[in-house]
Amino acid sequence: MNSLPLRSIYVGGRWTAPRATGTIAVENPATQRIIGEVPDCGSEDVWTAVDAARRALPGWAAAGIEERAAALSALREGLVKRQDELAETVTREMGSPITFSRRVQAGLPVRVLDGFLAELAAATAEERVGHSLVVREPVGVVGAITPWNYPLHQAVAKIGAAVGAGCALVLKPSELAPLSSYLLAEIIDGIGLPPGVFNLVPGRGATAGVALTVDDGVDLVSFTGSLETGRAVGAAAARTVKKTSLELGGKSATLVLPDADLVTAVEDGVRGALLNAGQTCTARTRLLVPRARLDEALDVARAVVADYVPGDPEDPATLLGPLASAGQRERVLAHVAQAARSGARQVAGQDLANGLPHTGHYVAPSVWADVAPSSPLAREEVFGPVLAVLAYDGEDEAVSLANRTDYGLAASVWSADQDRAVAVARRLRVGQVDVNGAKFNAAAPFGGYKQSGVGRELGRHGIQEFQEVKSLQLPG
Ligand code: NDP
């Protein structure tokens, strides 16, 4: 990490000095030590990067599918080679436990690239509609704005789609976790992508992020982050009628049907809530159980939570690290205090709150029962290790509760009868549903209904999000 060119930005295929003179300090949220400083770029650096991307665009847009596939494969290989370093960097910049970082923070991007490779031909295929030939072309220059919770994955999801679609891209990573993007840029520098197809400009949302969003040279803004910022990005991009792709928050549910294996379902539901200390857009932070089995479910939840002792994220045995920043800790504690005031009952995690490490932005996990469906805990994204358990009295009520938020990102449904689970899954207004614990598919479309976002990422749909469609009417 010390060898990364952190004083530079990556523009036009080389590391270059930024115009910005200020820097942003990056803190390790476990030790609270500063582990790096990156440039605090403003509009001028963004303009330079967008210019470089525009110059690279015609050449890359004309590249054949083999050349694009070769670039994606080379990137995949580069990520695999430096997987340990990538995992360690993510752990140090945002606090994810190292075992999770290896498997997901650094492992998932590899699977994401596999998904793009598998779907590249289908994503770019032309079709006939009557006397028209319908062709797919790159949308142009993509402005990619990413958050801190899965910093590498979110960057790779956008870069892979851009490279596959034939676009050029400017990435602005989160100011909290930009270091893994530097490592990623170093890898990309070594794969022979034409200069300017990928550019990295770190900075703050209010400056670099806004500049990228309003720049005339950007054709599409691909944003992942909070609902509030997503609304601002969408509104700002609308001024130049830019396309926007928004991956926002969630309040996802684990729905346990009465005939399900309750222990397995609840164990999975609790783990799904505490994933990455709850800092996951698809975190299943609501557990819906049949009223008659509520007490049984709470016992299982308590037993699972006991394993999530907050600890050093660099220890391979740690399941729960610190939150990513002091600000995030404050936001989560405010949600917890609000839950207690609202009359919800904490049923797990109290003992863990007494043994938190003295340094670091730690929050103990907590599980809450007697949560009113209209309360903020049941409806708002907490983005911390906090689970709300709600009891229901019949399948219709379960579905209605699951759908009763402004979000619509993900869910999981459990039943002994898979057809029944699938039927319930179809009634949920969300972008993805795991049936009976089926695992994440990095080639399947990912995105949200309702205020969880606009558009889809990953696989064929992710590449197509970065394309325009043109109809050529052909005579006779
Ligand atoms: P944001 O949504 O504000 O940040 C996401 C990205 O957008 C960052 O790169 C940020 O820059 C950038 N950004 C911020 N403001 C603007 C803007 N006006 N125009 C363009 N880009 C902008 O998330 P935060 O990090 O502030 O986290 C706040 C809350 O959002 C969290 O508590 C959590 O609840 C939620 N969140 C949800 C995520 C999800 O995946 N659902 C992901 C991250 C956060 P920078 O941070 O560098 O200033």
What topology does this entry show?
Blueprint: E1 9-11, E2 14-16, E3 23-27, E4 34-39, H1 43-61, H2 65-81, H3 83-94, H4 98-105, H5 108-124, E5 127-129, E6 132-138, E7 141-145, H6 151-165, E8 168-172, H7 179-189, E9 198-200, H8 205-214, E10 220-224, H9 227-238, E11 243-247, E12 253-256, H10 262-274, E13 286-290, H11 294-305, H12 326-341, E14 345-348, E15 366-369, H13 376-379, E16 386-392, H14 395-402, E17 410-414, H15 418-426, E18 432-435, E19 453-454, H16 459-465, E20 467-473
Parallel strand pairs: 7-8, 7-10, 8-9, 10-11, 12-13, 12-17, 13-16, 15-16, 17-18
Antiparallel strand pairs: 1-2, 3-4, 5-6, 6-20, 11-19, 14-15
The structure holds NADPH dihydro-nicotinamide-adenine-dinucleotide phosphate.
Explained architecture:
The protein is α/β, with parallel strands linked by helices. It is 40% helix and 19% strand. Helix 6 links the parallel strand 7 and strand 8. The radius of gyration is 22 Å and the shape is globular. The mean pLDDT is 97. The structure holds NADPH dihydro-nicotinamide-adenine-dinucleotide phosphate. NADPH dihydro-nicotinamide-adenine-dinucleotide phosphate binds next to helix 8, helix 9 and helix 12. NADPH dihydro-nicotinamide-adenine-dinucleotide phosphate (NDP) binds next to helix 8, helix 9 and helix 12.
